[in-house]
Specification:
The protein has 17 helices and 16 strands. It is of the alpha/beta class.
């Protein structure tokens, strides 16, 4: 077999793991020792062909200026002792084995990162921190194998270009349309979605815990594969810049409002004596289908953690209703449900009152509840209960831990949820601000 690729690959691997990598002047040779350990075929007494081929390939590489041969002395002067890499011809050596010099790739990526850092104005602070960290990683002595690979600088360049565009989106844009705008390829952005999502999870503190799929996470930044709908029941009038009106009034049991309408159109009217967010779809549907549900209650399905579009919509709804209008939340009494509630309180900046949040509820449904996971006990006590916005949750958390159960929302009757809402809501419809 030809040994040209073997010789160069072995030497370049040693170069990549050397502390001298990247230096033009080196103190110690990058050397492949021709020993029985590294080159056992060279010492095969039963077949002399491998040795002859190895020596022929090594001599040609030396003639091309890529390596220097070291020969034994004395009686074994006909045998190669070692092969040294000619460092000044590194790029040529990489090309010979079909690879790009990672140092060139590193330099290219560092240049792109530097350009990005100088153009961060108007972007979130975490984005600059991400670029700074990536630059530090790329500048280290060892070759990084993270999201930016110096062996594939074009791939890294596309990743940086995509993230830069995503964090700068001012309004929602379709996934494939954005991909064509950036790369001239409708599928390129989707192929990068996993790595984009990984970096965003690592650096964006405002990213919701929800959305395991990379495309779900891209939606948080306004990149949509298809238009999202927000399920709503109640009296809301949305007004566009062109004076078009979309009204949710009269739709039964509820209506799907396009997310771009909910986010970008102005709320002209929101007649309500209470606003209710509901975590789970089955409970939301059951509540909206109650014949006794008043027309002046607004009900919003959150689907677990509210994405950014829903948070923006709820903030606008808050701004469009009187301060005295109460906001409620109906969800699971467990780690996930409490985290969802606290996220809403923090992001919407409203004191959403949680329904069924009482120790007696845990006692009542004890026999129908699922067991509480052991790892959730510490989370409930050390994370959830100590949150500044969770003071009203502490008694029910202690009861949940004491009983070792979690109370799922579907156990609770929608009629009882409505009763709690009616009793706490203001007696007459509020007026729009």
């Amino acid at each position: 077999m030809p040994y040209r690729h073997f010789i160069l690959s072995s030497l370049l691997k040693k170069w990549e793991h050397s502390s001298q990598r990247g230096q033009e002047q080196i103190r110690r040779a990058i050397r492949l020792n021709v020993t029985r350990t590294e080159c056992s075929f060279y010492f095969d007494e039963t077949d002399h062909e491998p040795r002859a081929q190895f020596e022929t390939d090594a001599k040609i590489l030396e003639q091309e200026g890529l390596v220097t041969l070291r020969w034994n002395k004395g009686a074994r002067s006909h045998e190669i002792k070692a092969i040294d890499l000619v460092v000044s011809r590194i790029s040529n050596a990489y090309r010979e084995i079909g690879k790009e010099d990672p140092e060139k790739g590193r330099a290219q990526l560092l240049s792109l990162l530097e350009e990005g850092i100088h153009a961060v104005e108007g972007t979130p602070s975490w984005y600059r921190a991400m670029l700074e960290d990536l630059k530090t990683e790329m500048s280290t002595s060892s070759l990084p194998r993270g999201p930016l690979n110096p062996y594939e600088p074009e791939e890294g360049g596309d990743l940086l270009k995509a993230i830069s565009a995503v964090v700068r989106l001012e309004r929602p844009e379709r996934l494939r349309a954005l991909s064509i705008r950036l790369f001239g390829d409708s599928k390129r952005l989707e192929s990068l979605a996993g790595r984009i999502a990984s970096l965003c999870r690592r650096y964006d503190p405002g990213l919701l815990p929800a959305g395991d799929h990379p495309l779900d996470m891209l939606r948080e930044y306004g990149v949509e594969r298809k238009a999202g709908l927000m399920s709503v029941r109640g009296k809301i009038d949305f007004l566009s810049d062109g004076d078009c009106i979309l009204s949710t009034e009269g739709w039964r049991p509820f209506v799907g409002v396009p997310e771009d309408v909910a986010v970008n159109w102005r709320i002209e009217r929101a007649d309500a004596r209470g606003v209710v967010t509901v975590e789970n779809e089955e409970s939301f549907s059951a509540l909206c289908r109650l014949p006794t549900l008043p027309d002046d209650l607004i009900v919003v399905y959150t689907g677990g953690f509210s994405n950014r579009a829903r948070v923006v919509f709820l903030r606008k709804l808050d701004a469009a209703t009187e301060v005295s209008i109460p906001f409620f939340h109906w969800g699971d009494l467990d780690v996930g449900g409490f985290r969802i509630l606290l996220h809403l309180r923090r992001e919407v900046r409203r004191d959403l009152k949680m329904l069924f949040v009482a120790p007696k509820v845990v006692e009542r449904f004890f026999g129908e509840c699922r067991s509480l996971l052991k790892e959730h006990v510490d989370i409930l006590r050390k994370e959830v209960a100590t949150d500044p916005l969770a003071a009203d949750l502490v008694p029910v958390i202690e009861k949940i831990v004491s009983y070792g159960v979690r109370v799922e929302q579907e156990i609770m009757a929608p009629e009882e949820a409505l009763s709690q809402i009616i009793n706490a809501a203001i007696p007459s419809s509020g007026q729009s601000r």
